[in-house]
Amino acid sequence: MYEKTYPSKRFNITLDFLKKHIKTSETIFDLGVPNPFSKIMVDNGYTVINTKGEDIDNDQSALQNENYSVFTGFEIFEHLLNPYTVLQNVKADKILISIPLRLWFSPAYRSKTDMWDRHYHEFEDWQLDWLLEKTGFKIVDKVKFTHPVKKIGFRPLLRWFTPRYYLVYAERVKSDK
């Protein structure tokens, strides 16, 4: 069978991880407007609902009003001021989240021209783990991976072996109450 590959190492790893844990029969609520990866999910047989561009820090109604069984947030939690409240409002029992990790040798990303294209949070892995635990999720699987850049220099060299992304699959912990 022909397996399509994508130009980004990150997209290939994320798609393989998604396929490992989520069936195409499940409906995905993907946090964020339609984007290249949500299109990849659709091209691979998934039904995907995206947000409409609302400020998710202030308006989480879509999380409660849409019908979905899986929640995804790929490289978006770092842009949120309050990811805790977002996770509290997720009604799915399965979530996949990926984040860029905070790198000791690089400052947090901040666009000088786009006020929304900034990283309010750059997590360490334990911080996302704790956030998921505090909001009632248990991590089932996780992976870290590098994202080398084709540049010359000390920081580009470090990116070859320092993990940049953290990808997590978690399920809601069922309460005995």
UniProtKB/TrEMBL annotation:
**Record organism:** Flavobacterium fragile
Its lineage reads:
Bacteria, Pseudomonadati, Bacteroidota, Flavobacteriia, Flavobacteriales
Which Gene Ontology MF annotations are present? methyltransferase activity
- The organism's superkingdom is given as Bacteria
Which of UniProt's keywords are assigned here? Methyltransferase, Transferase
Give the protein name, as stated in the record: Methyltransferase
- What are the recorded Gene Ontology BP terms? methylation
